[in-house]
């Protein structure tokens, strides 16, 4: 049967409809999950590619065979042809398929798929519509349940625009997922350079690795359809022996490494790596200890388990050649948590930090996780001679889509609410990624910047934290202002109680228990407690509070905001037990009513906001808490503030008394 394999693909939407129709038919008729349906469809695409490469023209179904299958009969000739092609596919792509793999489609779904795909070429057509159609098709499927390997396209393109890859540079993604960074890098190179040798760029310079075979197949197919040449996407565990990784991607062991690493390593639900052989091959597989204020050393003690993304950071730095550049997506905890200061020290020791960009909360919500993330851009710099360079910090506030399941687009509107459009009549997304890219270009030229989104600091101003809020100009100016106004540390003017109550040893004792939600923030008072036996208390029940104490929150989503819980303990709650989400302040060396006022002020709350860490449950460390700055004004000002705060409590008590004095009974 002679097929017309030169069929021109002129309309992306037409091909996209074909892909969607095939997927929907399989899903509706074969009882497969969305993920299984996609995997089977990818298998058929590989089979077609093999048929075209071998020029055997065995990927077809004629009218008689189709009618036979539609009549619920088998077509042995069709199955023999396709199974033979699949055997060749497994042999050709042995790292992506297992020997025991088989096609799981019903005869009817297989016939329908072949019928829809047989009239055009996947690798010989010069038109790029097939690559674009596959990208659009895949993005639909990724949002529908494969978010575990998907990085939002705007973030991918943003990272690539910051790194600015060149045609002669080697690029690797050691956790490539569906190949987004590789595709975006390829398109960036094409769009920003003339006379690009496409085959050389793809076959010699782009490398993708992923531990999951079905995902690696998608990445390989995506790039293959985009570029029409053989690709270097491999199914490899990037955390195994380094030399083995280089060998499998066909990079000489004597190679100096890659020019660029772009990646979003697995984090969150990926679990910890506990294999001692793998852990022992990484510096970050071992525990580190602090030897002075700014230094850590590696110990000889292995972690019992280390999260994958931390090992990926080290592997990515290893993969870079000297001067090579990297962009990586990481959870915010890696930029700010005190327990990971050793990790940031390690990064500073091996690299030059180019930039840190904070992403909004909604970035990954459409793809299955609400973990807050930031982007780290670095350059490998083992000698670390230059310690005076500037660092770029920025914050993306508008991503262009909503933080809902579908990631619904958000468009710019005029003052009347009408959607704004570009010169091609397309709606304009409401985003500021493009603004930050321009900020970075300006910073790159001028070595300093301060805009609405971005700012810069000197390397020697960088301490053990990498987070945007900590160094923001607004927060730094706030600290400077407080320091100029007779500032003291909190621990110098109060005792911070951190000893668990002895009452907790008596399991049958009945106590009043106070949670964060039991505080009325505007009135600075505890308004509720729960009577419980000690054995019923939650594990967070910790401290005994006394009349005259002040309790203030150090954990929870509201800390550092106007809803931050702070209260003065009155006689009603004397002896109660509070959660360890509070810290108890006692034995004041300053007027407690003034301190109560200060704990509600922007000077205190902004410090909390700046210093808080933790993506799931924000908190401030005890060390940071005790070192919060308290401004001490003149005695006259303290007295005036104290009297007003005290009076407000007296008026509330009087109000309660008036209400309680009302007596009214129905006759």
Can you tell me about this structure?
This protein is an alpha/beta fold and 667 residues long. It has 3 domains: 12-132; 147-397 and 452-464, Vaccinia Virus protein VP39 (Rossmann fold, 3-Layer(aba) Sandwich); 490-655, Alpha-Beta Complex (Adenine-n6-DNA-methyltransferase TaqI, Chain A, domain 2), CATH 3.90.220. 39% of the residues lie in helices and 18% in strands. It is built from 23 helices and 25 strands. The chain is elongated and about 95 Å long. It starts with 11 loop residues before the first helix and ends in a 7-residue tail after the last helix. Mean pLDDT is 88; it is low at 1-11 and 144-149. Belongs to the N(4)/N(6)-methyltransferase family. Residues 138-412 form the DNA methylase adenine-specific domain. It catalyses: a 2'-deoxyadenosine in DNA + S-adenosyl-L-methionine = an N(6)-methyl-2'-deoxyadenosine in DNA + S-adenosyl-L-homocysteine + H(+).
What labels would you give this structure?
667 residues; alpha/beta; Rossmann fold; Adenine-n6-DNA-methyltransferase TaqI, Chain A, domain 2; 3 domains; 9-stranded mixed β-sheet; 4-stranded antiparallel β-sheet; 23 helices; elongated; methyltransferase
């Amino acid at each position: 049967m002679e097929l017309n394999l030169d069929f021109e693909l002129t309309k992306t939407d037409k091909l996209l409809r074909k892909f969607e129709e095939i997927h929907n038919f399989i899903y509706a008729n074969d009882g497969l999950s969305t993920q299984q349906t996609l995997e089977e469809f990818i298998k058929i695409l590989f089979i077609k590619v093999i048929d075209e490469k071998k020029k055997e023209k065995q990927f077809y179904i004629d009218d008689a065979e189709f009618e036979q299958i539609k009549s619920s009969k088998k077509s042995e000739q069709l199955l023999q042809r396709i199974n033979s092609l699949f055997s060749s596919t497994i042999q050709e792509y042995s790292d992506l398929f297992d020997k025991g793999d088989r096609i799981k489609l019903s005869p009817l779904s297989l016939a329908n798929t072949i019928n829809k795909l047989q009239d055009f070429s996947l690798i010989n057509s010069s038109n790029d519509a097939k690559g674009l159609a596959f990208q659009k098709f895949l993005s639909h499927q990724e949002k529908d349940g494969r978010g575990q390997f998907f990085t939002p396209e705007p973030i991918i393109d943003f990272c690539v625009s910051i790194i600015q890859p060149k045609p002669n540079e080697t690029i690797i993604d050691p956790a490539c997922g569906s190949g987004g960074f590789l595709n975006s890098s390829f398109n960036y190179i094409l769009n920003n350079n003339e006379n690009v040798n496409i085959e050389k760029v793809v076959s010699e310079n782009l490398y993708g690795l992923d531990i999951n075979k079905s995902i690696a197949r998608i990445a390989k197919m995506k790039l293959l359809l985009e570029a029409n040449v053989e690709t270097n996407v491999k199914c490899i565990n990037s955390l195994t022996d380094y030399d083995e990784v280089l060998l499998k991607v066909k990079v000489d062991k004597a190679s100096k490494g890659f020019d660029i690493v772009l990646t979003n390593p697995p984090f969150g639900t990926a679990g910890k790596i506990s294999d001692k052989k793998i852990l022992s091959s990484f510096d970050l597989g071992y525990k580190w200890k602090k030897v002075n204020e700014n230094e850590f050393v590696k110990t000889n003690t292995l972690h019992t388990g280390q999260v994958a993304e931390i090992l990926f950071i080290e592997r990515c730095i290893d993969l870079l050649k000297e001067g090579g550049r990297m962009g990586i997506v990481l959870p915010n905890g890696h930029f700010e948590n005190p327990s990971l200061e050793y990790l940031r020290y390690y990064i500073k020791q091996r690299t030059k930090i180019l930039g840190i960009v904070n992403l909004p909360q909604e970035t990954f919500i459409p793809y299955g996780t609400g973990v807050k993330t930031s982007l780290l851009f670095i350059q490998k710099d083992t000698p670390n001679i230059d310690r005076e360079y500037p660092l770029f910090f920025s914050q993306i506030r508008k991503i262009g889509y909503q933080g809902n399941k579908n990631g619904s687009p958000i468009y710019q509107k005029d003052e009347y609410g009408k959607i704004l459009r570009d010169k091609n009549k397309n709606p304009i997304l409401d985003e500021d990624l493009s603004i930050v890219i321009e900020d970075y270009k300006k910073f790159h030229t001028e070595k300093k910047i301060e805009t609405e989104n971005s700012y810069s600091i000197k390397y020697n101003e960088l301490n053990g934290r990498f987070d945007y809020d900590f160094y923001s100009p607004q927060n730094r100016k706030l600290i400077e202002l407080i320091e100029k106004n007779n500032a003291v540390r909190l621990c110098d003017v109060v005792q911070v109680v951190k000893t668990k109550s002895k009452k907790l040893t008596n399991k049958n004792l009945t106590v009043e228990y106070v949670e964060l939600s039991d505080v009325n923030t505007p009135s600075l008072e505890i308004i509720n407690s729960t009577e419980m036996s000690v054995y019923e208390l939650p594990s967070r029940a910790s401290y005994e509070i006394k009349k005259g104490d002040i309790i203030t929150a150090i954990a929870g989503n509201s800390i550092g905001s106007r809803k931050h819980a702070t209260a003065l303990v009155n006689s009603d709650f004397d002896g109660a037990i509070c959660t360890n989400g509070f810290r108890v302040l006692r034995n004041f060396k300053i007027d407690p009513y003034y301190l109560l006022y200060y704990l509600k002020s922007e000077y205190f709350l902004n410090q909390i906001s700046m210093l808080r860490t933790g993506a799931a449950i924000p908190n401030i460390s005890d060390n940071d808490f005790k070192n919060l700055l308290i401004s001490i004004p003149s005695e006259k000002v303290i007295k005036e503030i104290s009297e007003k705060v005290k009076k407000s409590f007296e008026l509330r008590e009087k109000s309660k008394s008036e209400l309680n004095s009302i007596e009214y009974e129905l006759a």
